[in-house]
Design brief:
The complex is a heterodimer of chains A (75) and B (269). Chain A is mainly α. Helix content of chain A is 81%, strand content 0%. In chain A, helix 1 runs antiparallel to helix 3. A two-stranded antiparallel ribbon of chain B has the order 1-2. The chains are: A mainly alpha (75), B mainly alpha (269).
Amino acid sequence: MDPSAAKLIGAGLACTALIGAGTGIGIIFGNFLQGALRNPTAAPGQFPNLLLGFALAEATGLFGLVIALILLFVF
Amino acid sequence: MIDWFISAAHAAAAEGGAHGGHEFNPMHQFSIQKYFDIHLFGYTVPFTNSALWMVMATTFMTALLLYSMQKASLVPSRLQSFGEITYEFVANMVRQNAGNAGMKYFPVIFTIFLFVLSLNMLGMIPLPGLGQFTVTSHIIITFALAAFVFIGVTLIGIFKHGFGFLKLFVPSGVPIWLLPLITVIEIISYFTRPISLSVRLFANMMAGHTMLAVFASFVVGLGIIGGWVPFIFMVLLMGLEVLIAFLQAYVFAVLSSIYLHDALHAAEH
């Protein structure tokens, strides 16, 4: 196989890390809404934790994206 | 002062002109341009657009905080309450995550938070003549910040607990046959902290700005008739990016204070 083709396929495969990020962000916001609707008075206090969880989940997906960008632009 | 400013503007314009007609490259916005050299103790230090943006961010935040506290009164003005809210926000965050013992290191966390926040936010604003640049979208900057936090926190832990600091790697309440495995995992996770801390910020900034550039190219490519659809998306994405710029500064500061908490209470595990 042509090495440049392997590079492109590898970059595409690395982007599948974003599946996990999407799932994780969905789980975080879904569970927050579920909890917030059950106990609305406690919800504002947990908002910073929601944002923290969102950022942490998003970052793990972006690690995969960085691998893809490294494959595309460095090699 | 004015001289290099104008020449820098000309350089940026020439660069833009040379690039405008050719193919579009979303990575071009991350290129570092040298404005002039500073000769210091026999070394040549190039003053780049990255340095210029860092100077702008530091000056802006210092001036804003100093000016907001200039005429401090019991009933705060709008600017004063901005300064107070910022202070309170970070102080509460450090107190929650690092405990009262961590408040000694509040100035460092506050400075890191404001530095990263202002760099992220300045990166969202295109400046006339200078273009647009995000300092935090370069891994060397974020890695230097994260390494500073990591080394500082480790030194605090070692000075405070001595050899007791090593208890951080041996959590209590774990079955004895699991300990060798857990300890190795804890050590690895401790030493990947600066990498994950820096890559998180850098990847978010770089991915966000690349995405903005790609969507902006759709607006230009579709022209005045079809360009409105991606343009609306562009506005929404800009809002998301402002949120992310704030959030990543916040996460950087929160994780720094969590690491600080670990170091301060290492022996109590």
